[in-house]
Amino acid sequence: MKIAVLPGDGIGPEIVAQAVKVLKALNLHLEMTEAPIGGAGYEVAGDPLPEATLKLAKDADAVLLGAVGDWKYDKLERHLRPERGLLRIRKELNLFANLRPALLYAELASASTLKPDVVSGLDIMIVRELTGDIYFGQPRGISMLESGEREGVNTMRYNESEIKRIGRVAFEIAMKRNKKVCSVDKANVLETTELWRQVMIELSAEYPEVELSHMYVDNAAMQLIRAPKQFDVMVTGNIFGDILSDEASMLTGSIGMLPSASLDQHNKGMYEPSHGSAPDIARKDVANPLATILSAAMMLRYTFNDEANASRVENAVKKALAQGFRTADIWTEGTKKVGCAAMGDAVVAAL
Ligand code: NAD
Fold first, then answer.
1. Ligand 1 geometric centre to CA of 170 (Å)
2. So where are the chain's domains?
3. Whose CA is nearest to atom 28 of ligand 1?
Protein backbone atom coordinates (compact mmCIF):
# COMPACT_ATOMS: atom_id res chain seq x y z
CA MET A 1 0.00 0.00 0.00
CA LYS A 2 1.55 3.22 -1.18
CA ILE A 3 0.79 6.47 0.57
CA ALA A 4 1.86 9.88 -0.70
CA VAL A 5 2.49 12.01 2.38
CA LEU A 6 2.10 15.73 1.70
CA PRO A 7 2.64 17.72 4.90
CA GLY A 8 2.21 21.19 3.33
CA ASP A 9 2.54 24.38 5.34
CA GLY A 10 2.04 25.85 8.81
CA ILE A 11 1.14 23.14 11.32
CA GLY A 12 0.96 20.61 8.43
CA PRO A 13 4.38 18.97 9.04
CA GLU A 14 3.76 18.67 12.82
CA ILE A 15 0.33 17.06 12.61
CA VAL A 16 1.20 14.79 9.68
CA ALA A 17 4.26 13.52 11.58
CA GLN A 18 1.89 12.31 14.34
CA ALA A 19 -0.40 10.52 11.88
CA VAL A 20 2.64 8.86 10.25
CA LYS A 21 3.84 7.78 13.70
CA VAL A 22 0.45 6.16 14.39
CA LEU A 23 0.36 4.42 10.99
CA LYS A 24 3.88 3.06 11.54
CA ALA A 25 2.86 1.73 14.96
CA LEU A 26 0.27 -0.49 13.26
CA ASN A 27 3.07 -2.50 11.62
CA LEU A 28 1.32 -2.73 8.26
CA HIS A 29 3.13 -2.90 4.94
CA LEU A 30 2.90 0.77 4.12
CA GLU A 31 5.24 2.57 1.78
CA MET A 32 5.08 6.23 2.74
CA THR A 33 6.83 8.86 0.61
CA GLU A 34 6.87 12.56 1.40
CA ALA A 35 6.61 15.44 -1.07
CA PRO A 36 6.03 19.19 -0.84
CA ILE A 37 2.73 20.92 -1.69
CA GLY A 38 1.37 24.44 -1.22
CA GLY A 39 3.86 27.05 -0.04
CA ALA A 40 6.40 24.27 0.51
CA GLY A 41 6.01 23.29 -3.16
CA TYR A 42 6.44 26.89 -4.23
CA GLU A 43 9.64 27.17 -2.17
CA VAL A 44 11.34 24.15 -3.74
CA ALA A 45 9.91 24.13 -7.28
CA GLY A 46 8.19 27.49 -7.82
CA ASP A 47 4.87 25.64 -8.10
CA PRO A 48 2.27 24.93 -5.37
CA LEU A 49 1.79 21.50 -6.95
CA PRO A 50 5.20 20.43 -8.31
CA GLU A 51 5.09 17.85 -11.11
CA ALA A 52 6.96 15.30 -8.98
CA THR A 53 4.39 15.69 -6.19
CA LEU A 54 1.49 15.20 -8.59
CA LYS A 55 3.14 12.11 -10.06
CA LEU A 56 3.72 10.66 -6.59
CA ALA A 57 0.06 11.31 -5.68
CA LYS A 58 -1.19 9.74 -8.91
CA ASP A 59 0.96 6.63 -8.43
CA ALA A 60 -0.05 6.20 -4.77
CA ASP A 61 -3.11 4.33 -3.45
CA ALA A 62 -3.92 7.18 -1.10
CA VAL A 63 -2.75 10.66 -0.17
CA LEU A 64 -2.32 11.94 3.38
CA LEU A 65 -2.33 15.73 3.42
CA GLY A 66 -1.65 18.20 6.23
CA ALA A 67 -2.80 21.66 5.19
CA VAL A 68 -1.61 24.42 2.90
CA GLY A 69 -1.34 28.17 3.18
CA ASP A 70 0.50 30.90 4.95
CA TRP A 71 -0.10 34.61 5.05
CA LYS A 72 3.37 35.21 3.63
CA TYR A 73 2.16 33.85 0.25
CA ASP A 74 -0.93 36.11 0.07
CA LYS A 75 0.82 38.55 -2.27
CA LEU A 76 1.82 35.93 -4.85
CA GLU A 77 0.01 35.80 -8.18
CA ARG A 78 -3.15 33.72 -7.85
CA HIS A 79 -1.85 30.67 -9.77
CA LEU A 80 1.20 30.44 -7.48
CA ARG A 81 -0.69 30.57 -4.18
CA PRO A 82 -0.72 27.48 -1.94
CA GLU A 83 -4.50 26.98 -2.23
CA ARG A 84 -4.15 26.49 -6.00
CA GLY A 85 -2.06 23.39 -5.31
CA LEU A 86 -4.89 21.94 -3.26
CA LEU A 87 -7.62 22.72 -5.79
CA ARG A 88 -5.51 21.30 -8.58
CA ILE A 89 -4.64 18.04 -6.88
CA ARG A 90 -8.36 17.46 -6.07
CA LYS A 91 -9.20 18.02 -9.73
CA GLU A 92 -6.30 15.98 -11.12
CA LEU A 93 -7.24 13.01 -8.91
CA ASN A 94 -10.93 13.39 -9.82
CA LEU A 95 -12.04 13.38 -6.21
CA PHE A 96 -15.80 13.81 -6.53
CA ALA A 97 -16.97 12.53 -3.14
CA ASN A 98 -16.22 14.47 0.01
CA LEU A 99 -16.78 12.67 3.29
CA ARG A 100 -16.98 14.76 6.42
CA PRO A 101 -17.86 13.00 9.64
CA ALA A 102 -19.21 15.04 12.53
CA LEU A 103 -18.37 12.91 15.49
CA LEU A 104 -18.40 14.01 19.08
CA TYR A 105 -16.58 11.99 21.69
CA ALA A 106 -18.50 11.90 24.97
CA GLU A 107 -15.39 13.27 26.73
CA LEU A 108 -15.61 16.46 24.66
CA ALA A 109 -19.37 17.10 24.91
CA SER A 110 -18.76 20.28 26.88
CA ALA A 111 -16.73 21.72 23.97
CA SER A 112 -19.90 22.10 21.87
CA THR A 113 -22.05 25.22 22.02
CA LEU A 114 -25.13 22.97 22.07
CA LYS A 115 -26.45 21.23 25.18
CA PRO A 116 -24.45 18.08 25.96
CA ASP A 117 -27.51 15.82 25.80
CA VAL A 118 -28.27 17.05 22.25
CA VAL A 119 -24.77 16.29 20.89
CA SER A 120 -23.21 13.68 23.17
CA GLY A 121 -22.48 10.54 21.14
CA LEU A 122 -23.14 12.35 17.86
CA ASP A 123 -21.90 10.42 14.82
CA ILE A 124 -22.99 11.76 11.41
CA MET A 125 -21.33 11.26 8.04
CA ILE A 126 -21.97 13.98 5.47
CA VAL A 127 -21.34 12.91 1.89
CA ARG A 128 -21.00 15.96 -0.35
CA GLU A 129 -20.68 15.90 -4.14
CA LEU A 130 -17.57 17.90 -4.93
CA THR A 131 -17.16 18.42 -8.66
CA GLY A 132 -20.57 19.50 -10.01
CA ASP A 133 -23.61 21.65 -9.16
CA ILE A 134 -23.94 25.42 -9.26
CA TYR A 135 -20.20 25.86 -8.53
CA PHE A 136 -19.25 24.49 -11.94
CA GLY A 137 -22.42 24.66 -14.11
CA GLN A 138 -22.43 26.65 -17.35
CA PRO A 139 -23.52 29.27 -18.31
CA ARG A 140 -22.14 31.48 -15.59
CA GLY A 141 -20.91 35.04 -15.29
CA ILE A 142 -21.88 38.65 -14.93
CA SER A 143 -23.14 40.41 -18.06
CA MET A 144 -24.72 43.69 -19.09
CA LEU A 145 -28.41 43.62 -19.98
CA GLU A 146 -29.92 45.75 -22.75
CA SER A 147 -31.57 47.82 -20.06
CA GLY A 148 -28.10 48.85 -18.90
CA GLU A 149 -28.12 46.98 -15.60
CA ARG A 150 -25.85 44.02 -14.77
CA GLU A 151 -27.04 40.47 -14.26
CA GLY A 152 -25.29 37.60 -12.49
CA VAL A 153 -25.91 34.00 -13.59
CA ASN A 154 -24.95 30.61 -12.20
CA THR A 155 -26.41 27.31 -13.28
CA MET A 156 -27.40 24.44 -11.03
CA ARG A 157 -26.80 21.33 -13.04
CA TYR A 158 -26.50 17.59 -12.33
CA ASN A 159 -26.80 14.72 -14.73
CA GLU A 160 -28.04 11.29 -13.79
CA SER A 161 -24.66 9.57 -13.71
CA GLU A 162 -23.18 12.25 -11.43
CA ILE A 163 -26.06 11.81 -8.98
CA LYS A 164 -25.84 8.05 -9.16
CA ARG A 165 -22.12 7.85 -8.41
CA ILE A 166 -22.34 10.07 -5.31
CA GLY A 167 -25.50 8.24 -4.22
CA ARG A 168 -23.65 4.95 -4.50
CA VAL A 169 -20.86 6.26 -2.24
CA ALA A 170 -23.46 7.23 0.38
CA PHE A 171 -25.29 3.89 0.25
CA GLU A 172 -22.03 1.93 0.45
CA ILE A 173 -20.93 3.95 3.50
CA ALA A 174 -24.33 3.47 5.13
CA MET A 175 -23.87 -0.30 4.68
CA LYS A 176 -20.75 -0.01 6.87
CA ARG A 177 -22.62 2.07 9.46
CA ASN A 178 -26.25 2.20 10.68
CA LYS A 179 -27.82 1.68 7.24
CA LYS A 180 -29.69 4.99 7.06
CA VAL A 181 -29.30 7.55 4.28
CA CYS A 182 -30.96 10.96 4.34
CA SER A 183 -30.84 12.64 0.92
CA VAL A 184 -31.02 16.41 1.17
CA ASP A 185 -32.54 18.44 -1.67
CA LYS A 186 -34.91 21.26 -2.52
CA ALA A 187 -37.10 19.17 -4.79
CA ASN A 188 -40.17 21.33 -4.16
CA VAL A 189 -38.55 24.28 -5.95
CA LEU A 190 -35.52 23.15 -7.99
CA GLU A 191 -35.86 20.70 -10.90
CA THR A 192 -32.19 19.74 -10.64
CA THR A 193 -32.85 18.38 -7.19
CA GLU A 194 -36.19 16.88 -8.24
CA LEU A 195 -34.08 14.69 -10.54
CA TRP A 196 -31.65 14.16 -7.66
CA ARG A 197 -34.48 12.75 -5.53
CA GLN A 198 -35.78 10.50 -8.34
CA VAL A 199 -32.32 9.03 -8.97
CA MET A 200 -31.76 8.42 -5.25
CA ILE A 201 -35.05 6.55 -5.06
CA GLU A 202 -34.15 4.45 -8.13
CA LEU A 203 -30.71 3.69 -6.71
CA SER A 204 -32.12 2.67 -3.34
CA ALA A 205 -33.65 -0.41 -4.99
CA GLU A 206 -30.08 -1.80 -5.17
CA TYR A 207 -29.67 -1.35 -1.40
CA PRO A 208 -32.79 -2.88 0.19
CA GLU A 209 -31.11 -2.99 3.60
CA VAL A 210 -30.61 0.76 3.69
CA GLU A 211 -33.45 3.02 4.82
CA LEU A 212 -33.62 6.06 2.50
CA SER A 213 -35.32 9.28 3.60
CA HIS A 214 -35.49 12.73 2.02
CA MET A 215 -35.33 16.17 3.56
CA TYR A 216 -35.49 19.68 2.16
CA VAL A 217 -32.28 21.57 2.79
CA ASP A 218 -33.90 24.29 4.89
CA ASN A 219 -35.38 21.69 7.22
CA ALA A 220 -32.06 19.78 7.28
CA ALA A 221 -30.26 22.95 8.46
CA MET A 222 -32.80 23.23 11.26
CA GLN A 223 -32.81 19.55 12.22
CA LEU A 224 -29.00 19.50 12.47
CA ILE A 225 -29.27 21.95 15.35
CA ARG A 226 -32.54 20.65 16.85
CA ALA A 227 -31.88 16.89 16.90
CA PRO A 228 -28.65 16.00 15.09
CA LYS A 229 -28.52 12.44 16.38
CA GLN A 230 -31.43 11.45 14.10
CA PHE A 231 -28.94 11.33 11.17
CA ASP A 232 -26.57 8.56 10.12
CA VAL A 233 -25.42 9.34 6.55
CA MET A 234 -26.52 12.55 4.80
CA VAL A 235 -25.94 12.85 1.06
CA THR A 236 -26.29 16.08 -0.85
CA GLY A 237 -25.02 18.23 -3.71
CA ASN A 238 -22.05 20.54 -3.73
CA ILE A 239 -23.56 23.81 -2.50
CA PHE A 240 -25.92 22.36 0.11
CA GLY A 241 -23.12 20.07 1.31
CA ASP A 242 -20.69 22.97 1.61
CA ILE A 243 -23.01 24.75 4.02
CA LEU A 244 -24.37 21.75 5.95
CA SER A 245 -20.95 20.18 6.54
CA ASP A 246 -19.63 23.38 8.10
CA GLU A 247 -22.76 23.65 10.21
CA ALA A 248 -22.38 20.03 11.33
CA SER A 249 -18.69 20.46 12.13
CA MET A 250 -19.51 23.14 14.66
CA LEU A 251 -21.83 20.78 16.53
CA THR A 252 -18.66 19.17 17.79
CA GLY A 253 -17.16 22.45 18.94
CA SER A 254 -13.59 21.83 17.89
CA ILE A 255 -12.05 22.12 14.48
CA GLY A 256 -8.93 20.26 15.58
CA MET A 257 -10.90 17.00 15.86
CA LEU A 258 -12.51 16.71 12.42
CA PRO A 259 -11.08 14.49 9.68
CA SER A 260 -12.15 14.37 6.05
CA ALA A 261 -11.78 12.20 2.98
CA SER A 262 -12.21 12.94 -0.71
CA LEU A 263 -12.64 9.88 -2.90
CA ASP A 264 -12.56 9.03 -6.58
CA GLN A 265 -14.55 6.35 -8.37
CA HIS A 266 -12.19 3.58 -7.27
CA ASN A 267 -12.03 4.61 -3.60
CA LYS A 268 -8.61 6.11 -4.05
CA GLY A 269 -8.66 9.01 -1.66
CA MET A 270 -7.06 12.08 -0.28
CA TYR A 271 -7.30 12.33 3.51
CA GLU A 272 -6.86 15.57 5.38
CA PRO A 273 -8.04 17.39 8.50
CA SER A 274 -10.97 19.77 7.97
CA HIS A 275 -9.00 22.70 9.35
CA GLY A 276 -6.36 24.89 7.71
CA SER A 277 -2.65 25.36 8.26
CA ALA A 278 -3.06 27.54 11.39
CA PRO A 279 0.10 29.61 10.80
CA ASP A 280 -0.59 31.42 14.09
CA ILE A 281 0.42 28.30 16.07
CA ALA A 282 2.88 26.67 13.63
CA ARG A 283 6.18 25.25 14.97
CA LYS A 284 5.06 25.70 18.59
CA ASP A 285 4.14 22.05 19.19
CA VAL A 286 0.64 23.03 20.37
CA ALA A 287 -1.54 22.00 17.38
CA ASN A 288 -4.09 19.24 17.80
CA PRO A 289 -3.02 16.27 15.61
CA LEU A 290 -6.20 14.22 16.19
CA ALA A 291 -8.06 15.36 13.05
CA THR A 292 -5.09 14.18 10.98
CA ILE A 293 -4.75 10.92 12.90
CA LEU A 294 -8.49 10.32 12.41
CA SER A 295 -8.06 11.10 8.70
CA ALA A 296 -5.48 8.30 8.58
CA ALA A 297 -8.09 6.02 10.18
CA MET A 298 -10.53 6.98 7.41
CA MET A 299 -7.83 6.06 4.88
CA LEU A 300 -7.56 2.59 6.38
CA ARG A 301 -11.34 2.19 6.25
CA TYR A 302 -12.24 3.66 2.86
CA THR A 303 -9.20 3.09 0.64
CA PHE A 304 -7.59 0.04 2.24
CA ASN A 305 -10.86 -1.56 3.40
CA ASP A 306 -9.23 -2.31 6.73
CA GLU A 307 -12.04 -1.77 9.22
CA ALA A 308 -10.16 -3.50 12.05
CA ASN A 309 -7.18 -1.14 12.01
CA ALA A 310 -9.38 1.91 11.35
CA SER A 311 -11.32 1.10 14.51
CA ARG A 312 -8.11 0.43 16.42
CA VAL A 313 -6.87 3.94 15.65
CA GLU A 314 -10.22 5.52 16.50
CA ASN A 315 -10.40 3.61 19.77
CA ALA A 316 -6.85 4.65 20.62
CA VAL A 317 -7.88 8.30 20.13
CA LYS A 318 -10.89 7.73 22.38
CA LYS A 319 -8.67 6.10 24.99
CA ALA A 320 -6.14 8.96 24.95
CA LEU A 321 -9.04 11.39 25.50
CA ALA A 322 -10.51 9.22 28.24
CA GLN A 323 -7.08 9.23 29.94
CA GLY A 324 -7.41 13.01 30.07
CA PHE A 325 -4.86 14.04 27.41
CA ARG A 326 -5.83 17.33 25.71
CA THR A 327 -4.12 19.75 23.37
CA ALA A 328 -4.68 23.43 24.14
CA ASP A 329 -7.70 23.83 21.80
CA ILE A 330 -9.76 21.20 23.67
CA TRP A 331 -8.28 21.62 27.12
CA THR A 332 -10.67 22.08 30.07
CA GLU A 333 -10.03 22.34 33.81
CA GLY A 334 -8.98 19.03 35.33
CA THR A 335 -7.49 17.52 32.15
CA LYS A 336 -3.81 17.10 31.15
CA LYS A 337 -2.56 19.68 28.66
CA VAL A 338 -0.06 18.19 26.21
CA GLY A 339 1.66 19.31 23.00
CA CYS A 340 1.19 17.99 19.48
CA ALA A 341 3.94 15.33 19.62
CA ALA A 342 2.92 14.16 23.11
CA MET A 343 -0.67 13.72 21.93
CA GLY A 344 0.65 11.57 19.06
CA ASP A 345 2.64 9.54 21.62
CA ALA A 346 -0.48 9.13 23.79
CA VAL A 347 -2.40 7.69 20.83
CA VAL A 348 0.49 5.32 19.98
CA ALA A 349 0.66 4.20 23.63
CA ALA A 350 -3.10 3.60 23.61
CA LEU A 351 -2.76 1.45 20.49
P1 NAD B 1 -7.33 27.60 10.15
O2 NAD B 1 -8.25 26.43 10.14
O3 NAD B 1 -5.93 27.35 9.73
O4 NAD B 1 -7.32 28.22 11.61
C5 NAD B 1 -8.46 28.74 12.26
C6 NAD B 1 -8.23 28.77 13.79
O7 NAD B 1 -8.25 27.43 14.27
C8 NAD B 1 -6.84 29.33 14.17
O9 NAD B 1 -6.97 30.05 15.36
C10 NAD B 1 -5.99 28.11 14.40
O11 NAD B 1 -4.96 28.29 15.33
C12 NAD B 1 -7.03 27.11 14.91
N13 NAD B 1 -6.69 25.72 14.52
C14 NAD B 1 -6.79 25.17 13.28
N15 NAD B 1 -6.37 23.91 13.28
C16 NAD B 1 -5.99 23.63 14.56
C17 NAD B 1 -5.44 22.49 15.20
N18 NAD B 1 -5.20 21.35 14.54
N19 NAD B 1 -5.15 22.58 16.51
C20 NAD B 1 -5.38 23.70 17.20
N21 NAD B 1 -5.90 24.81 16.66
C22 NAD B 1 -6.20 24.78 15.34
O23 NAD B 1 -8.02 28.70 9.23
P24 NAD B 1 -7.50 30.17 8.83
O25 NAD B 1 -6.78 30.81 9.98
O26 NAD B 1 -8.68 30.84 8.26
O27 NAD B 1 -6.48 29.93 7.66
C28 NAD B 1 -5.07 29.82 7.83
C29 NAD B 1 -4.43 29.37 6.54
O30 NAD B 1 -4.92 28.06 6.24
C31 NAD B 1 -4.76 30.24 5.33
O32 NAD B 1 -3.60 30.39 4.54
C33 NAD B 1 -5.83 29.43 4.60
O34 NAD B 1 -5.85 29.70 3.24
C35 NAD B 1 -5.40 28.04 4.89
N36 NAD B 1 -6.46 27.02 4.82
C37 NAD B 1 -6.11 25.82 4.29
C38 NAD B 1 -7.02 24.79 4.25
C39 NAD B 1 -6.53 23.46 3.73
O40 NAD B 1 -5.35 23.27 3.52
N41 NAD B 1 -7.41 22.50 3.52
C42 NAD B 1 -8.31 24.96 4.74
C43 NAD B 1 -8.65 26.21 5.32
C44 NAD B 1 -7.71 27.23 5.35
1. 28
2. 1-96+266-351, 98-263
3. 278
- C-alpha distances in Å from residue 277, one per residue of 130, 166, 230, 305: 21, 28, 32, 29
In the reported structure, the alpha carbon of residue 331 is separated from the centroid of ligand 1 by a whole-number distance in angstroms of 18
State whether the beta carbon of 19 lies less than 6 angstroms from ligand 1.
Answer: no
Looking at the CA of residue 273, tell me the nearest atom of ligand 1: 41
The β-bridge relationship of strands 123-129 and 233-236 is parallel
Nearest CA to ligand 1 atom 8: 278
For residue 326, give the 3-state DSSP assignment.
strand
298/85 Cα distance (integer angstroms): 22
Do 1-96+266-351 and 98-263 have matching folds? yes
Question: Is there an atom of ligand 1 within 6 Å of 86 CB?
Answer: yes
Protein fold of 98-263: Isopropylmalate Dehydrogenase (3.40.718)
Sign of CA dihedral 192, 194, 199, 200: positive
Task: Specify whether domain 1-96+266-351 bears CATH 1.10.230.10.
Answer: no
Which atom of ligand 1 is nearest the CA belonging to 329? 20
User: Which of 277, 281, 292 is the best mutation target for the ligand 1 pocket, counting ligand atoms within 8 Å of the beta carbon and taking the most?
Assistant: 277
Q: One digit per residue, pLDDT tens: the chain, 351 residues? A: 999 999 999 999 999 999 999 999 999 999 999 999 999 999 999 999 999 999 999 999 999 999 999 999 989 998 899 999 998 998 899 999 999 999 888 888 877 888 888 998 899 999 999 989 998 899 999 999 999 999 999 999 999 999 999 999 999 999 989 999 999 999 999 999 999 999 999 999 999 999 999 999 999 999 999 999 999 999 999 999 989 988 888 888 777 888 999 999 998 999 999 899 999 999 999 999 999 999 999 999 999 999 999 999 999 999 999 999 999 998 888 999 999 999 999 999 999
Residues recorded for the chain: 351
Active site members: 135, 186, 218, 242, 246
CA angle 249, 254, 256 (to 5 degrees): 100
CA of 316 to the centre of ligand 1 (A): 25
| CB-ligand 1 contact for 269 (6 Å cutoff) | no
